[in-house]
Design brief:
The structure is a single chain. By secondary structure, the protein is an alpha+beta fold. It has three domains: 14-48 and 142-247 and 361-390; 55-137, no CATH class; 261-338, no CATH class. The protein contains 13 helices and eight strands. The protein has helices at 2-9, 14-43, 46-53, 55-58, 71-82, 139-153, 161-183, 203-233, 235-245, 273-283, 340-346, 348-353, 358-407, and strands at 85-91, 99-104, 121-125, 132-135, 288-293, 301-308, 318-323, 329-333. An eight-stranded antiparallel β-sheet has the order 4-3-2-1-5-6-7-8. Strand 1 and strand 2 form a beta hairpin. Helix 2 packs across helix 13 (358-407) and helix 7 packs across helix 8 (203-233). The longest helix has 50 residues, at 358-407. The protein is elongated, with a radius of gyration of 29 Å.
Amino acid sequence: MKHRKKHMKNKYSFRKFSNDIHLWLGIASGLVLFVVCLTGTILTFEKEIVEWADAERYHVEAAAGSNIIPIDELVAKTEAGLKAKVTGVEIPANPNAVYRFTVQEKGPKGKKPEGGKGGGKTYLVNPYNGDITGTTKSATAEFFSTMMGLHRWLLLQDSGGKIIVGAATIIFVFLVLSGLVLWWPVKLRNWKQGFQIKFSANWKRVNHDLHNTLGFYAFIVLLIMSLTGLCWSFEWYKTGLSDVLGDEVFKQRKEKPMPSDPLNATQAEKLMLASLISKADQSFPYEGNYRLRFPADSAGSYVINKSRSGFFVLTAADKIQFEQYTGAVLKTEKFSDKPLNEQVASSVRSLHLGDIYGTFSKIIYFLACLFATSLPITGTIIWINKLKKKNKKEATGKRRVQRLKQHQPVTV
């Protein structure tokens, strides 16, 4: 009977296995995960912080009695002022925000600027007077660019940084899942302990509760962030996820606009952008943000993306394309009409960044990232405390053995 009890006591359980996996994987990846989670926390509100820090560029006030200049006039004025072609415009729903004009500038002898692949440079324009308030380049933007480099590849783009971050992210998935196993109460009467932090207890207990409870509250968001983030680290993972979903992840990056017929150019009048926006509003009758992309060549088309704005709204964009000579609608894509698998595939970026449901989901992601940043710290403290406790127990055991040996009777 005693032998059976001892055997049951020493049995290696799944919970014990999860604990060991959680411990050693956490120690192996803790520093990298701390950097990735910290930079992810900072990047969550990048747009809002940049626009706040550089408010003189991004914020405008309409003078009394002034109205927004029609978009076609703004484009003409911007092209004349910069002596360059506008290739795209972003029109925000916020009346106190600037318009963003993408301009394809030319380098020496008509060549594209060094390092440019056609993306162009973005200028910020006051829609009430047409003045250019600046560009998107600034010290604040550069800071966030550095944070992005740390987040994506630890500033080691050419030294395998992307692989290191990807490997740490895979480990993080196992940490989240094993952490859920460890959080699950062994006895039902202890269920409530997993949902609260006992601040009245000693600091070791508080640290343990912070690790367990915050990790539990954030685990779903952390799992989503991890599983989507791997798409940037490994091509094989992105391909595999595309196969699982039945639709290509990031396919919008490679999608080309519907073609226009250059034969229509001879009889067509210049299209007004305002009329195209009006047609887009008929297909998508809600207030929102616009992103206009102009035809790249004689066979290209106008593309308008429209997305909702607000504190709690689905920000996925609807898209409509127009023939560049006749203004005929070539294709309309409503996000809500897409099958679920296509919705998920096209939302991978938003699901990772946290802006899928506007400011509301950004707050949730910010808190989850903040919790995740604390996990390597609280977890390391738990490990150190356990080592101290183990060493103390071993030292006590050795002293007890020595005392027993000293009092052991001598046999003849």
